[in-house]
Structures are given as C-alpha cells and as structure tokens.
Design a protein that fits this description.
- This protein has helices at about 30-35, 90-100, 110-125, 145-150, 160-180, and strands spanning about 5-15, 15-25, 55, 60-65, 75-80.
- The protein has about 180 residues and is α+β, with helices and mostly antiparallel strands.
- It has a five-stranded mixed beta sheet with strand order 2-1-5-3-4, with helices on both faces.
- β1 (about 5-15) and β2 (about 15-25) form a beta hairpin.
- α2 runs antiparallel to α5 and α3 (about 110-125) crosses α5.
- The mean pLDDT is about 95.
C-alpha cells in the first residue's frame, strides 16, 4: 500500500483554528487562497521573489508561496485579513491609505504584512544591511528612508509606488513609537 500524500492539519490563521486536509505539496499560499478563501494574500511570481504573498508566521514575515502548509501547522499565521481590528484599520494600513502607498494595490497586502514586521524588527534593534553601526551597544538605529528601503526590499511594486510606501512605513513606525 502506497503512503498517503495528504494530511489533515490545523492552521492557526488570524486568531482562528482552521482544519483542512491538504496534499503534502500544497503551499501555504495555495491553502490560504484556495482552501480557506483568504484571497487578500496575492500570488505574484510563485517563486519567492516578489513578496506579494508575504504573511506573518509567528510574527516574522514569510513568503507563503515557498512555505509548505504542513510546515505551518501549529504556528500563528497572520494574513492581511487579520491585520485590522474589526472596522478599525491598523496604523500601517491607515498610513498606506493616507499617503497613497499603493497604486494598483496588488502588492499592497504583502507590503503591509512586511511593513508590520519591519517596524517590529527595527524596534527590537535588529540591524539591516543599511545599518551603519551593528554593534549591540549602538542601540536601535534611526529608521531612515534608506533603512526602510533596505528592509522592504523583498517586496516589489510594479507600479513604482516606493516613495509613498517608504513614507507610509515611516509614518506608521512613528505612530507605533508614540503609542509606547
């Protein structure tokens, strides 16, 4: 008898447990979109190069087209549908809206999920390739436009809305700092 190629699994998505049966080769992106009807996460290149499918897994950003659904079992997954608090937009979403951080909007869900992680990573003091002084005693670097561009570099925008995206991330980061 051949081994089974499907598994029943429970995904924790946007604070909710969702049980489904998937082929072992099913990506998290396809499970989210095709099985759970969470179509906010977009399929762009399907090769992990564009960032349109970025979601948060345990608070860290991940391109869901390269993540197998079975490997995400038991981990907390946040998609764009889980970012807002009911009808109240998350400050990152509001900043993208206020500052036109999108044009066609196709990449926007991935951009927003990535921006959420960027703000957290920066606040935690994680350096980037653009960070001048990476010594721990140097403290948290200033979140400059260059830092934001480097940290968001895995998310492409075919429309070229980068200037507004950088401004939106900076505005949301300032709002996060003021809230603390």
């Amino acid at each position: 008898m051949a081994p089974s190629t499907t598994s029943a699994l429970t995904l924790h998505v946007n604070g909710e447990k969702r049980t489904l049966s998937v082929d072992h080769r099913t990506t998290l992106l396809d499970a989210l979109r095709e099985r759970l009807d969470l179509t906010g996460t977009k399929k762009g290149c399907d090769q992990g190069q564009c960032g349109a499918c970025t979601v948060l897994i345990d608070g860290r950003r991940a391109v869901s087209c390269l993540q197998l659904a079975v490997a995400a079992e038991g981990r907390e997954i946040t998609t764009i549908e889980g970012v807002a608090d009911g009808d109240r937009l998350h400050p990152v979403q509001q900043a993208f809206l206020d500052l036109d951080g999108f044009q066609c909007g196709y990449c926007t869900p991935g951009q927003i999920c990535s921006a959420l992680a960027v703000i957290e990573e920066h606040a935690a003091g994680w350096p980037s390739a653009a960070t001048d002084d990476v010594r721990p005693e140097a403290g948290v670097p200033e979140l400059t436009a260059e830092e934001i561009r480097e940290r968001m570099s895995g998310n492409l925008c075919r429309c070229g809305a980068y200037v507004s995206i950088v401004r939106a991330v900076a505005k949301a980061a300032r709002a996060e700092e003021e809230a603390v």
